[in-house]
Amino acid sequence: MILHELIEFDTLRVIWWLLLGVLLIGFALTDGFDLGVGALLPFVAKTDTERRVVINTVGPVWEGNQVWFILGGGAIFAAWPSLYAVSFSGFYLAMFVVLAALILRPVAFTYRSKREDTTWRTAWDWALFVGGAVPALIFGVAVGNVLQGVPFRLTDDLWAMYEGGFFGLLNPFALLAGAVSVAMLLQHGAAWLTLKTEGPVSQRARTYGSVAGIVAMAGYALAGVWLLFGIDGYTLVDDVVRNGPSNPLHSEVAKGVSWGASYTARPWIAIAPLLGFVGMAMAMRGLRAGREVSTLLWSKLGIFGVISSVGLTMFPFILPSTIDPRSSLTVWDSSSSHLTLFVMLVVTVIFVPLILLYTAWVYKVLWGKVTEDDVTSNSESLY
Amino acid sequence: MELDIVELSRLQFAMTAMYHFLFVPLTLGLSVLVAIMETVYVMTNRPIWRQMTKFWGSLFGINFVLGVATGITMEFQFGMNWSYYSHYMGDIFGAPLAIEGLMAFFLEATFVGLFFFGWDKLSKRAHLTVTWLVALGSNLSALWILIANGWMQNPVGAEFNPMTMRMEMTSFFEVMFNEVAQAKFVHTVSAGYVTAAVFVLGVSAWYLLKGRHTELARRSISVAASFGLASAVSVVVLGDESGYSATHSQKMKLAAIEAMWHTQPAPASFTLVGFPNREARETHYAIHVPWAMGLIGTRSLTTEIPGIAELVENAEARIRSGIIAYDALTQIRELRDDAPADVVATFEEHSGDLGFAFLLRRYVDDPRDATDKQIAIASNDTVPQVWPLFWAFRFMVALGFGFIATMTYFFFMASFRGMRFPRPALRLAVIMIPAPWIAAELGWFVAEFGRQPWTVDGVLPTAMSVSHLSVSDLLLTLAGFVTLYTVLFVIEMGLMLKYIRKGPYMDVAETDVWTERHTHRLRTHDGKGPFAETPAE
Fold first, then answer.
1. Is residue A383 part of a domain?
2. How many domains does chain B contain in total?
3. What residue ranges are annotated as transmembrane (chain A) (predicted)?
4. Checking phi first, is residue A317 left (phi over 0); if not, alpha (psi -120 to 50) or beta?
């Protein structure tokens, strides 16, 4: 098969770097709001009926949303196998916590309203809270660690040796990143609830959401300053072969240059953090003013900006190594082979538009608010 | 057993995968059965079929969510626990997993919400389409997962790249149309259909025994028995196809399953039962069926099937060849593009056996330093434990024939004997409910345990595939999974039983037109038509 030669290896690598971003952002935009909704549940809904309203706003869609997460895992495996191998084994216990939370969450959605008794329902409400808040926090913490670099080294056989523990992940910068992530997704969840609910639930969501918006912006600003002035960045030492074999050990990496260098080299990337601030600020104003559709869209723009700012700042690095910079994974040396990237691109180009199309159709069918009346009159069939 | 990383990782993987597969087969089969029921509803407009769709759909939902939840673990566990495997195989193995998400899981998961919540938001036909898309999604999902798994059994369309120290894809089509994968896919999906058919049959039989929801139960039995009969035949026939493809791709697994210690003159006999002894390399008290093995395995009277002893000798030769490959690889890695042509040529000649040299890693750091004794031990390691495979396989096959018999009986009684099931038969149907799950788990056990000591057959030993983790990390997550999964299992079973006991939301009567025609049919058929007046209870 020579068809794949049509697109250069290095171009495919950049495309897959972009697609990795698309997937992570897709995950944050869709599953992000139902993580946020889960984390907001105990605060915005007081009575059982209110809670059912909140749960049913995401009831029919969380399952599809969660596939972004699964697909994220699958796509990293297929396109960036070294990243898949190093990061998930390195963040082993943190990953376990995420998995446990994300296993509880689907079950909580489906089973909660299948029994009347209060203890049962309260227990599942907690599961939804934990299932929303904990992954949101850990994803942020993970990003915070990736920006600082992770303590791993690769042997000559490319065995990944991770030399940090679970608690090493919980350093101040990473926790700040985790807080930003939680606040951002809380705001996103609140924007969703404003659109899908009415009355007191919607009111409370707007209040909590706008506070979360302020926290997210402040935290993001602080993290930005900290990153540029207090954290070591990484650079590739000499010109790397961009279409060479995927072996991270073939390139030399220097540690110590500020990530700010990315902004001097590529000033246009400053647009990403800018969009992050604008989106979050406008979403916060929208929440205060009670605007519905536009608030959700602004919130999405904010998340888009924040996540892209991380990727663009680090480019071409994907996972730097603190203890052995040479082992760092970059766009040029940790991808799949030329053929695999090409095959996966073809599949993605066919299926992602289809997915977006039918997902949009499903949201259209489900358009409209979920009311207390809906829940009480369809008590058997709804969550 | 010493608790090391490899054993603990295997234990955790086996546990989470087998647990995941408690829910998958029912999802696979019930999604199709529910779609069939809804199709009847849309075609005939008889409300009872809508009620059936909703009732079995609600049980589908309770089961489905745990399949989804435990599937999350599967998607990430390769990276968490099998880091070197992920690096080494990701270029090939990751692709079908990602495609599964793109093509299948998105479809299934996006529409399953509408299946439950879209009844009053969609037209009848639109809802039916949604239901079929859920069924299609779950079945396509199985296809891609089995393409991934099939590649672990029979790694085609890939070669080792010394520069990246991993396997890389050379042909996506070979990976996709891998004969092992295709045979496994149809076998697995049929097993799912049988599971759902036995489940629906058993639950309905219980209703008939209790004299509850009889209209729903009878119709469900007629669907389940016909669907189940076709699937049970298919699961056995296609299982045989799997065995046939193993004859040329996984000789050692086949020899172990059949406890074929030594190569026999063709056509080999089939050992029906016996007690395999690995040390003595013989099967005690064996009952043989002459010719049968040769016919099943090769579909010829003249082709030999190699026995374990011969395969071990073969492995020893491949280990020695692998050491040559390893030596050349070491030079190529140091010199990169400047490696001399003859070294590259040597490597290419022997690279297919590189994995066999890695078998020595358990005993010596550098395979080149291995002694003859170590090589002999390593070649013996290529023999999986025989007796568990031998017996697991036989139980699975016996259950398979049991399903065919049960389904044939119920199909016959439903179609030609007016659904007058004797009570013992109904009781048997209830008792049989767990059987397909046992068969499915045994099947996976045979497939995966039989592949040992490899994660990818002949390419990477299991012992080398793990992550660099600590025993305490693994014990912690293992305990965590056991606790979480046990709690969820108890809750799921509780809800399942609660919803089965509760039955459909309310009983729906047949339409007047149907009842009239039916009564007419009963008169003309002398009481032998379907649903005769004397019910089972």
1. no
2. 1
3. 15-45, 66-85, 91-111, 123-146, 166-186, 207-229, 265-284, 296-319, 339-363
4. beta
